[in-house]
Amino acid sequence: MPGDEFDWIARLLRPLTRGAPEALDLLDDAAVLPSRPGYDLVVTKDAMVAGVHFLADDPLDLVARKLLRVNLSDLAAKGAEPYGYLLSTAWPRDTAWADKARFASGLAEDGDAFNLILLGGDTVSTPGPLTLTATLLGWVPQGRAILRRGASPGDRLAVSGVIGDGWLGLQAARGELDSPKLAERYRLPQPRLDLVEALRGHARAAADVSDGLLADAGHLATVSGCRVVIDLGLTPLSPEAARWLATQADEASGRLALATGGDDYQIVCALAEGGIPEGFTVIGRFEDGEGTRVVFAGQDIAVSRAGWTHG
C-alpha cells in the first residue's frame, strides 16, 4: 500500500532518473554532475502555485508538464539544450496517492519527450496550496549563451510564433471563452527549443515571453541600456486571437491586452541587421534612450501595465 514520501520517491520519482548515474538513484541528498568540455551549464528555476500559475482543478499530469515546459522555455531563450532537473513539491496533506501518481506520469511523459533526467530535489507537505518548483539545467556551447543584455540601438525587435494565446487560453480554461484549443495552449505551452540554433546564429539578446510581450521586451531594453519601440500592429496573432480581436470595440486596446497578458512562452529577441530567422516576426526596434515606447497605426499608445507582476 502506498504511503510516505519514501514511497513517493522510490516508486514514482526514481524511474524518472532514467538510470542516470549522476542522480544516485535518489538515495542521496545531492546529485553529482559531470562536466561537459566546451560547454557552459545554464541553470534556471521557476515555481508554480495552485490558483496562481495553474487552476486548482487542472489535471495534475498537465500541471507537471507545464512546470517543466515553463523552465524549458527559459533554457530555449538562452540557446541551451535540456539536460536534467531538480524537483521540489509541497503537497497539501490530504493529497491522494493517485494524484501524485498522475503528476509523476506527466513528468515521465515530458521527461521522455525532452530527454530530461530527474537529478534530485525535495518533497514536503503543506497546509497551503500545492506549490511546485523545478530547477532545470541545460548545456550551451561555451561563451554562446544568449543573455538579456546585448541589444544595441539599430537592432530589430523580433518575436517567435504568435502572441496572446496564453492570456486568452487562461480565460478559456476558466470557462470564460469557448475555445478548447486555447485552453490547451495555456495548460500545455510549447517551449521553443526548435529555435535554439536560429537564436545562437542571429540573436544578440533574448528572453522568453512569460510575463507579457511588452514587459519582457522591456527587460531586454532596460538591461541593454537602450529603448525599445514596439508596433502593436505588427504583433503576430493566431487565427483564434484574430477572431477574438475582431469582437473588440477598439483594436488598439485589444492588441494591448494580448501583448500584456503573458503565458505565451515564445521568444522575444534583438536581431542585428540582416536576415530574419524562420519562425520570427520583426515587431519593432531598439534605439537610443530608455524605456518602452508602444505605437499603433502611427500613434503612441499609453501603457499602464506592461505585463504580469507578483506585486
Brief summary of the model shown:
The chain is α+β, with helices and mostly antiparallel strands.
Q: How does this model look, in words?
A:
With 311 residues, the protein is α+β, with helices and mostly antiparallel strands. The protein has two domains: 5-141, PurM-like, N-terminal domain (60s Ribosomal Protein L30, Chain: A); 156-300, Phosphoribosyl-aminoimidazole Synthetase, Chain A, domain 2 (Alpha-Beta Complex). 32% of the residues lie in helices and 26% in strands. The protein is built from nine helices and eleven strands. The strands form two sheets. The protein has a seven-stranded mixed β-sheet, sandwiched between helices. Strands 1-4-2-3 form a four-stranded mixed β-sheet, with helices on one face. Helix 3 (97-113) links the parallel strand 2 (81-92) and strand 3 (117-126). It is globular, with a radius of gyration of 20 Å. The termini are far apart. The relative contact order is 0.16. The mean pLDDT is 94.
